[in-house]
Design goal:
Elements (H helix, E strand, L loop, with lengths): L3 H11 L6 E3 L5 H5 L6 E3 L6 E3 L6 E3 L11 E5 L8 E4 L10 H13 L2 E5 L21 E5 L12 E3 L3 H11 L7 E15 L5 E9 L11 E8 L8 E3 L4 E8 L3 E10 L7 E9 L7 E2 L2 H15 L5 E9 L3 E14 L12 E4 L22
Parallel strand pairs: 1-2, 7-8, 8-9
Antiparallel strand pairs: 3-4, 3-6, 5-6, 9-20, 10-11, 10-19, 11-14, 12-13, 12-15, 15-16, 17-18, 18-19
């Protein structure tokens, strides 16, 4: 889950103060927090991102990929004109830094008036040298880290402290609130129906699946309890292993509601939520596609106002006539986290101001591991 610092950076970006983020982490939390992809360079990759080596398309997943080292995954590019096998984006130690990410990082460091180095030892090259590029254009460097770094003597300000504490102080001085973190996950329900051979019954199947593919995992759902509006005729079921799939047979003319009680995995902000799916074989079904961004924004506003998660909404429905099936994409708020903070005078301690102050010795500057720069 994104930290206070992650969300403070989102607030600074939305205010136009923060122009670009360079990350050496592979946890994907900057993207998840809300930093726009075009304002983010992930130098070592993202364990939730796979990319197409042919057309360059990126796919951000809600599950951690099964490989590292730029290897092929089990999925293909969804572009019908492409269809190439996708690869993970996480570098192994022998892998060179991606030139696209590195070039953007260098560009923004050269342009930056101020480079903030937050929670990094600044020892892994060539990434550790990126902040120095701002100095050539008159920019300044601020380092926030618990321990000393080899670049401390180049910084205008060094603070040895917890990044969350320091960033909370910055937001307070700027009179800015740290935005809450609202996580919204997507999944799809697939309701397939067909007539029995004697045309007296409807054989139907409901499947709860990832929007990233039928074989992709659903990490935020632990189990699903299925019940019906007509309890005396239909037996309830509990689906506790993936794929979440239920088959039933009903009378042709019968109509009812299918209730899905979704039990969330550990780490989600609420235990469960319920969605309803109408069943009527004789009715024609129509597809639609809502304004996804507008729907998600309304869900975020409601989650903030209620200070709780579990809200859900339909964002898209596709239909197929033969065999008759209905695929519905649901959005659901699985986490709401707000950030309240109080600062005391002893929480953060400025170590150095000005360009000539703190000294470091060779013993204090341990040699970092080097990565290749791919040209």
């Amino acid at each position: 889950m994104p930290s206070m610092t992650h969300m403070a950076l989102v607030g600074l970006e939305k205010a136009g103060i923060l122009k670009f983020v360079i990350s050496q982490n592979v946890d994907g939390l900057h993207l998840r927090s809300g930093i726009p992809r075009e304002k983010l360079a992930e130098l070592h990759g993202n364990s939730f991102m796979e990319t197409c080596p042919s057309c360059g398309a990126e796919y951000y997943r809600d599950f951690e990929l099964e490989t590292i080292g730029l290897k092929e995954t089990s999925r293909r590019c969804s572009d019908e004109k492409c269809g190439a096998k996708l690869r993970d984006t996480v570098l192994d130690w022998e892998d060179a830094l991606p030139p696209k990410e590195m070039n953007l990082a260098e560009k923004h460091c050269r342009m930056g008036d101020l480079v903030l180095c937050l929670g990094t030892s600044l020892q892994i090259t060539p990434a550790c040298n990126l902040p120095l590029k701002s100095l050539r254009g008159g920019g300044k460097i601020v380092i926030v880290n618990l321990q000393k770094t080899p670049k401390d003597k180049k910084a205008s300000l060094v603070i040895h402290g917890f990044v969350d504490t320091v960033i909370a102080g910055v937001m307070e001085l700027l009179n800015m609130k740290i935005p809450p973190y609202i996580r919204i996950d997507l999944f799809q329900t697939i309701l397939s129906q067909s007539l029995s051979s004697d045309k007296k019954f409807v054989n139907w199947t409901i499947r709860i699946a990832s929007v990233h593919g039928l074989s992709a995992p659903l990490p935020f759902i632990k189990s699903i309890e299925v019940s019906f509006s007509n309890n005396q005729n239909y037996k309830e079921a509990t689906l506790d292993t993936q794929p979440f799939l239920l088959k039933r047979r009903t009378v042709l003319t019968e109509t009812f509601e299918i209730f899905l009680n979704l039990k969330f995995s550990d780490g989600c902000g609420c235990l469960n939520t319920r969605i309803e799916i109408p069943f009527n074989f004789q009715d024609s079904i129509e597809g639609f596609k809502l304004d996804k961004n507008a729907t998600l924004e309304k869900m975020r506003d409601a989650a903030i106002e209620d200070s709780k998660c579990g809200q859900n909404a339909v964002v898209e429905r596709k239909t197929v006539l033969v065999p008759k099936s209905e695929m519905t994409v649901h959005a659901i708020v699985t986490n709401v986290k707000t950030f309240d903070y109080q600062l005391s005078n002893g929480d953060m301690k400025p170590i150095k101001e000005g360009l000539n102050g703190l000294k470091t010795t060779r013993k204090q500057r341990s040699k970092g591991r080097k990565r290749k720069t791919r040209l």
